[in-house]
Design brief:
globular, six-stranded antiparallel beta sheet, 10 helices
Length: about 325
């Protein structure tokens, strides 16, 4: 399949190597005639719970357009999308069952993954905070504001009351499967109710809501010669900027989180206590999102059984008692 897809692109002598299969099948492609490297993504998830509207052709065209615009109009170090020989961003082929599979190609960014347990430098953490704010500033511009197709469900949305309630339903499936206890789920429900209560009065304007990455994790950051680069915009969508910031804060230890925030707020001014409180809620939502995302992955069930009681007792309970968890979670 990968070899067939690559034939749709102007890559003279491709050499294809498998990388991984999570929400997408991914391959590195090297054009041995030029040495140019590419990332091939076959948008077929490993598990049903990982499948979403982000895998549809309109959603992928929106993603590729976003990356193209970010490269052209901002200093962000994101991957460059590649058109096929028909000048299209998305290539479509049929699998053995006749199902349409969408595929995309991006130019490769030279860099390395963040190693397990690795501490980034203060400069790298600060720079990453600045980079994330640049992305969110794009959302505040007219061309980055939520477009009509976003409201129609072309790209995912994150962190709103509606999406939080959908996630809560997905987590309830964990009770039916014996992964979470009813007692822990009651605490989860109360936590979601608290966060949604805050959102009922929190402003949703271009200053607070717009284009976000949606999946800021260590696995989606690269260390390059120019600094940290955000990769894998497959789950990008629209949401509160604080959702992205909360997910990003989870990457760092408690000493590093202030450095990250100093970069993130360098050009916007400090966050208010209300912002920090909501961001802590989004840190919990972001954490629960991983559980919902892995609901069909039985190999993670035992880990989830062990982890969820700790999250509920160490973080949900204090949060519901109005205690800060920003440096603890």
């Amino acid at each position: 399949m990968a070899t067939e897809i690559i034939s749709y692109y102007s890559i003279v002598k491709p050499s294809v190597s498998f990388i991984r299969h999570n929400e997408n099948l991914t391959y590195q492609v090297v054009d041995e005639s030029t040495g140019q490297k590419y990332l091939l993504r076959i948008h077929k998830a490993a598990f049903a719970s990982m499948t979403g509207i982000q895998h549809t052709r309109p959603a992928l065209e929106a993603e590729m357009n976003l990356l193209h615009e970010l490269r052209a109009t901002s200093p962000l170090r994101v991957q460059t999308p590649v058109r096929n020989t028909s000048e299209e961003w998305v290539s479509v082929l049929l699998d053995e069952t006749g199902e349409e599979i969408c595929c995309t190609v991006l130019e490769w960014i030279e860099g390395r993954d963040i190693k397990q347990g690795e501490c980034l430098t203060t400069a790298e953490i600060h720079d990453f905070g600045v980079q994330l704010q640049i992305l969110h500033q794009y959302g505040r511009r007219p061309e980055g504001a939520p477009k009509p197709q976003a409201q129609a469900g072309v790209r995912p949305a994150y962190g709103s009351i509606k999406e939080n309630l959908v996630m809560l339903e997905q987590l309830e499936e964990g009770v039916r499967r014996g992964i979470f206890t009813p007692e822990d789920f009651d605490l989860i429900r109360e936590t979601f109710k608290n966060i949604n209560g805050q959102l009922e009065t929190y402003p949703r304007t271009a200053e607070t809501w717009g284009v976000i990455h949606g999946d800021i994790t260590r696995g989606n950051l690269l260390v390059t010669d120019q600094g940290i680069s955000m990769i894998d915009f497959c789950l990008y969508g629209y949401g509160y900027y604080l959702f992205d910031a909360g997910g990003a804060a989870l990457i760092f230890n408690r000493e590093e989180r202030d450095v990250f925030l100093s970069g993130y707020t360098e050009h916007t001014g400090p966050l208010t206590k209300r912002d920090i409180r909501l961001m802590e809620g989004f840190m919990l939502i972001f954490t629960f999102g991983y559980f919902a995302f892995q609901m069909e992955n039985e190999s993670r069930y035992e880990w989830m059984r062990e982890r969820m009681p700790l999250i509920c007792s160490k973080f949900c309970k204090p949060y519901l008692q109005n205690e800060s968890i920003f440096y603890e979670l």
